[in-house]
Write a structure and sequence with these properties.
By secondary structure, the protein is mainly alpha-helical. The protein folds into 3 domains: 77 residues, Dna Ligase, domain 1, CATH 3.30.1490; 186 residues, no CATH class; 42 residues, Double Stranded RNA Binding Domain. The protein has 14 helices and 6 strands. The strands form 3 sheets. A two-stranded antiparallel sheet has the order 1-2. It is elongated and about 90 Å long. 34% of the residues are buried.
Length: 331
């Protein structure tokens, strides 16, 4: 009986020892590999790890990882994994099973940010390809997927705080932002595709102009009145879309710029930024009044003065200039 026990022990122990020895082999070099959010197969992840660090037995590593997930009920964890110099194949198995990735990056997209600003922030804070992000926003396939009629996906990305994987694909995070925007539209009952682009475009202008919470719907009402009366919007933020320079007189006269609402009637071709929920609500429910002009107060309150006529507006402009002049003299 003892012989059978000894024999059985040998049968079990030898393969296990062999397994431990084989998995104890070192990787060829240090490296990093990215497990995308959409990644599902263990074999493909192990292949990424193998390409990053060149370990000798990728098939065995994949088999052990699969067995580990079956025993624990675990799943692949998306993220950026770093393989250190001198690591073993056991280390590869452990990091995949435990999800030992780099810490995720919390990234906030403020209300009104353009796709260009989002792309820059993704690049600088998470190492994500900014050019690929812009390309995704401009692609016909992205716009078709979300039924967007505007020239780009700008305006259709939700301002919010996101958890981002460093160096993840630009398309993956852009899709998350677009899905979040779609959810918000549905909560606001913005389901009509034909009107949605116009609503979002108007909301993006309101977002750029409004600073105070109590003025969102008032400013929305100004633009609603101007559109109804076939007046040009003459909204400065539309001229600044896609550029960081201050507006000049020649910019105001530039009819070649399709976003120049001083020269072109109606809404611009598409949104000039990504509006938040408050701006969307204001665009959907503008305040009813007779105002068709507004100008900043210039007195530090961050508010505006509203006018029903051009003459009244000119008076408000004089008040603005006076307030700015007084502010400058106090410095």
């Amino acid at each position: 009986m003892r012989r059978w026990v000894v024999a059985a022990s040998i049968v079990v122990t030898v393969p296990l020892l062999t397994l431990f020895v084989i998995l104890g082999r070192s990787v060829g070099h240090a490296g990093s590999f990215l497990v995308e959010r959409s990644q599902r197969g263990v074999a493909s992840v192990v292949d990424l790890a193998h390409k990053a660090s060149d370990f000798p037995d990728p098939s065995l590593v994949a088999t052990v990882v699969r067995a580990g997930f079956r025993l624990t009920g675990g799943n692949l964890t998306p993220g950026l994994y770093n393989v250190a110099e001198g690591s073993t194949q056991w280390d590869i198995v452990r990091m995949i099973l435990r999800g030992e990735r780099e810490p995720l990056v919390k990234l906030t997209v403020p209300e009104g940010f353009t796709m260009f600003q989002i792309a820059s922030r993704l690049k600088h804070r998470a190492g994500i390809d900014s050019a690929a992000f812009i390309a995704w926003c401009r692609s016909a396939s992205s716009r078709t997927r979300y039924n967007v009629k505007s020239p780009t996906m700008d305006g259709f990305l939700m301002p919010a705080t996101y958890t981002v994987i460093r160096t993840e694909s630009a398309g993956a995070i852009a899709t998350i932002m677009a899905d979040a925007a779609l959810t918000s539209w549905r909560s606001l009952l913005v389901d009509n595709v034909r009107s949605r682009d116009s609503i979002v475009t108007l909301a993006s202008i309101i977002q750029k102009e409004a600073v105070r919470e109590d003025e969102y719907t008032t400013i929305a009402g100004v633009y609603a009145n101007r559109l109804q009366r076939s007046m040009r919007l003459e909204a400065d933020p539309t001229l600044q879309y896609g550029r960081d320079l201050a507006i000049t007189r020649s910019d105001l006269r530039d009819a070649s710029n399709p976003y120049n609402t001083y020269q072109h009637a109606g809404l611009p071709p598409g949104p000039i930024g990504n509006p938040g929920v408050r701006a969307m609500r204001a665009a959907l429910n503008p305040e009813r009044h007779e105002y068709v002009f507004f100008v900043a107060r210039g007195d530090g309150t961050r508010g505006h003065r509203f006018a029903r006529s051009y003459a009244e507006h000119l008076g408000n402009v004089r008040l603005y200039r006076s307030a700015k002049s007084q502010s400058s003299s106090l410095r």
